[in-house]
Amino acid sequence: MGNDDGGAAVGQLLKGLLELGLRHAVQGGDYNPDQWLDRPDILEEDIKMMKKAGVNTATVGVFSWSALEPYPRKIRTANSMKSCL
To answer: Which of 11, 44, 64, 72 can bridge 34 by disulfide, Cβ–Cβ 3.0-4.6 Å?
Structure first.
């Protein structure tokens, strides 16, 4: 194994994030609510748990992008997506 300095790498990452104006930690992950569209109770509970866990970012719609962007550069907004639910 090499003599890598992981601390230096983390320091560089944090410096880059600060230069971008990010002043808080990013915590989140993938979220695919399309599998629960027929269960609003599950969606509601998911959101409550994410807020409690401090989630502030999420990748959404990875497997359903065509529903979010039906045509190139035609993105559906949250208001227009309500009709899909």
So the answer is: 64
